[in-house]
Amino acid sequence: MRDKVETAYLEAKQLYERHGVDVEAALRKLAGIKISLHCWQGDDVRGFLRRGDALGGGIAVTGSYPGRASTPGELRSDLELALSLIPGKHKVNLHAIYADTDEDVDLDELQPRHFRGWIDWAKQNGLGLDFNPTLFSHPKAEDGFTLSHSDPAIRQFWIDHCKASRRIAESFGRELGQPCVTNHWLPDGYKDTPVDRWSPRARLREALDDIFADEIDETYNIDAVESKLFGIGSESYVVGSHEFYMGYAMSRGKTICLDAGHFHPTEVISNKLSSILMFADRLLLHVSRPVRWDSDHVITMDDELLEIARELVRGDLLPRTHIGLDFFDGSINHVAAWVIGVRNMQKALLRALLEPVEQLKRIELERDYTSRLALVEEFKSYPFGAIWDQFCRQAGVPVREKWLDEVKRHEKEVLQPREAGRGTP
Ligand SMILES: C[C@H](O)[C@H](O)[C@@H](O)C(=O)CO
Ligand SMILES: [Mn+2]
After folding, report:
1. 243 partner at 20 to 30 Å CA-CA among 97, 123, 206, 257?
2. Residue 134: which CATH number?
3. Is 71 within a domain?
4. Ligand 1 contact, 329 CB (< 6 A)
5. What residues make up the domain containing 144?
6. pTM of whole model > 0.95?
7. Could you tell me if the ipTM is greater than 0.90?
8. Which residues are catalytic?
9. Where do the annotations place Mn(2+) binding (predicted)?
10. 132 lines ligand 1 (CB under 6 A)
């Protein structure tokens, strides 16, 4: 007996097939796309090392929703719940401050053994790991500069931290049998207009060259660099701007990371993907949602998310793009934030995979712009939801908003007692 999910799926499938869309192939493709879940959504970017240090680097988390994780075990069990509500096999993206160790170790001394707990857990759960050196929330980053600092000793500390991070990432890649993407983001910049824009950039270029001088096989570790237009306290000048890293990555064979929240308010990254991948081998995305500023809101299925997904599909760019999420909303349930974000990313990709791309491209070449607009608009209301439901069903995860029941149960049984156990701060 067919149930409602399957009946709706078969009806929807027929509609897509009339336009030559291979729905089963689309689902197979979607099942193979890994999304990197950023661990820092789980605890408001606090981490486990040097817990006394406030969040720095010109980024901010607002909200104090109860139950954020405060130990590696809590964070992993929250991630396990999120992953059980999301179809497919994915990756988890760690920052260096999430080391799982009782040792009092500073960032420049970190070693793979400090992440043993994460590696074992990833193996047990069939997950990949990505990594980030943490160049913020530390006394040596307090004046807003790290790798471009004018003091050679401070610069060296951060160079050593990034080198240590790449060795940790390499061990992830070796142990887990899939490459770890290590993203380098640093907050360096000035609040007000600088006199000398050149020297910090020259120092950053030199520091990065030093960090990347140690050859690491890309089978295990892929280095990425992430630009930013401005941060809180670096409104006038950021050393690692988009142009800086475009030049750096292209000239050094490194991967560019585009964060959707790191550009001018009306500037979108979707329009950059085909240009960058025309010349670069691969790309890393930090899919985020800036609201008025780089506010890192949970991604919704808005026009830009759909356009990013369409670009990746229409240009056949998925095999060369690593998709990571980057938002941190402390005002809602931390597990729900992951689930909403990843499921939205996947739904946007599914919608793109269900478009009659070849037909649309042909129409465009024929300059039939009327049909192009008509079909693209009509396809927006095609029943992709029925295909998505079947995808969730096949993957053994809750269909539609049923996942919220699990999150609410967990909140009651785990998060509320966890928060109560912490007592009054
Ligand atoms: C915590 C992350 O490294 C951070 O969000 C970075 O990727 C960024 O986007 C900073 O604005
Ligand atoms: Mn980012």
Report:
1. 97
2. 3.20.20.150
3. yes
4. no
5. 34-355
6. yes
7. yes
8. 185, 226, 228, 259, 262, 286, 294, 296, 326
9. 262, 294, 296
10. yes
